Amino acid sequence: MSDTKPAGAAWLQQQEKSNLAILKLMVWISLTFGRAIGRLVLYGIAGYYVLFAPKARRFSRAYLSRALGRWAEWSDGFRHVLAFASTIHDRIYLLNDRFDLFDIEIIGAEALDASLAKQPGALLIGAHLGSFEVLRAVGRGRAGLKVAMLMYEENARKINAALEAINPAATADIIALGRMDSMIEARDKLDQGYLVGMLADRGLGDDATVDHEFLGKMAPFPVGPFRMAALLRRPVFFMAGLYLGGNRYQIHFEPLADFSETPRAERDAAMRAAQQLYAERLSHFCRLAPYNWFNFFDFWQKK
Prior knowledge:
The protein is α/β, with parallel strands linked by helices and 303 residues long. It has one domain. Helices cover 48% and strands 19% of the residues. Strand 8 and strand 9 (248-258) form a beta hairpin. Helix 1 packs antiparallel against helix 2 and helix 2 (35-52) packs antiparallel against helix 4. The chain is globular and about 55 Å long. The two termini are 37 Å apart.
């Protein structure tokens, strides 16, 4: 049997290596010359995508028009892509523990602290909204507070490669979904007092979904994250790390549900209620910080 890889697979591997090489160069420029110089490149990147990625621009405009409540101009599309590029760029500093470069406000930590005082571990359900890496700043001054992320296995592999390119010493607690031991590993992390995070606004093509109103129109949301939350029997919080421009971030924690003592017979109803509240809070934060939601595709289409 030949061990030759298909041409497509070889091309994808070459593309990933090229992307990592560019990322390493960006890391070197940013850490050597500072955040201000590194950010200059972002304006060129944002301009390029607004001009030469018509499909992403069309979907960005469709979303922004809903979030803004008006027709989204070209300048809005530019701000949308620039916000995305900015959060990616800031990972370089956040993963190198350069929190001193940022002005980070935390809202709602009291409810999370109260929950952790009752029992170890909590689930954070977020979205492709702002920056999840800024959550690392919450651990500052909170001894022993650690964060793990649940994500699909292919995404986990790519994230680990990116983290190694940014900072080989950066600790990444990533739990790959789709394996037999995924649930056990997540439960063990929770028992150790971890905050276990997952994103619930995007699934794989064959994931089961339930429609909820989102920015004025019904949209499909994956059921998997809430089913896992119910099985893990822990308090669940909505988490958003909003990018406010410049060096400012705002982290929000809001209670979504507490599955700790939910009877099995009431589990489905509790899951649906939690997901409905999630869609409502996501709508709220998309209107509050419209350039922060980074789904550049037709989110309202039937999967």
